[in-house]
Amino acid sequence: MALLEQSIPIRVRYPEVDGMGYLHHSRYLQYFEIGRVELLRMQGHSYADLEKAGVFFVVAKAEIKYRAPARYDDELTLVTQLIKATAVRYDHSYQLKRGNTLLAEATTTIACVDRQGELQAIPDWVNAAKPPEPGTIT
Fold first, then answer.
1. How far lies 17's CA from each of 26, 29, 33, in Å?
2. Which helix (H) or strand (E) segment is 45 a member of?
3. pTM: predicted TM-score of the whole model, two decimal places
4. Which burial class, exposed, middle or buried, applies to 70 when counting CB atoms under 10 A from its CB (0-12, 13-18, 19+)?
5. What is the pLDDT of residues 71-81, one digit of tens each?
6. What is the edge-to-edge ordering of all strands in the sheet holding 4-11?
7. DSSP letter for each residue of 89-130
8. Strand pairing class (75-85; 101-113)
């Protein structure tokens, strides 16, 4: 069960596709980052403000399973879930869909580090944000 979940629309833009018109495989990681940043924003945190406070998140692990291609101008839905939280890391899962077609599913682990890149505990105030009331998550 997800601790938090959010869905956002993403339209495939022209510079994101390869010569055959397919979404380039490297762009999926960028989409997943958008999902993580928006999930933080939903909790009331701006990633820019976290960085100003000395809280940084780095990707420690990423795994993607590509199921079907996306093409230029496709309207996609990205579902991002926070599936595990520890003192120093968050684990997320993602589903990228076009309608009911699953295009990719992925997981990432992000670790909290300080300005020097040293592992640090996620500050309590980051975790203190209350999730939205049930039924308000899209």
1. 10, 14, 18
2. none
3. 0.88
4. buried
5. 999 999 999 99
6. 4-11, 75-85, 89-98, 101-113, 56-66
7. EEEEEEEEEETTEEEEEEEEEEEEE-TTS-B-PPPHHHHTSP
8. unpaired
CATH code for the structural domain at 4-125: 3.10.129.10
Q: Which two tokens stand for residue 124?
A: 């309590």
Q: Where are the domains of the chain?
A: 4-125
Place 91 in a pLDDT band, splitting at 50, 70 and 90: very high
User: Tell me, what's the pLDDT at 29?
Assistant: 97
* 115: Cβ contacts below 8 Å, ≥ 6 apart: 54, 56
Of 68, 67, 56, 71, the closest CA to residue 16 belongs to 71
Residue whose structure tokens are 């018109």: 21
For residue 4 the two structure tokens come to 């938090």
The residue written with tokens 């890149």 in the block is 117
Structure tokens at 30: 């960028």
pLDDT at 42 over 70: yes
Count the residues in the chain: 138
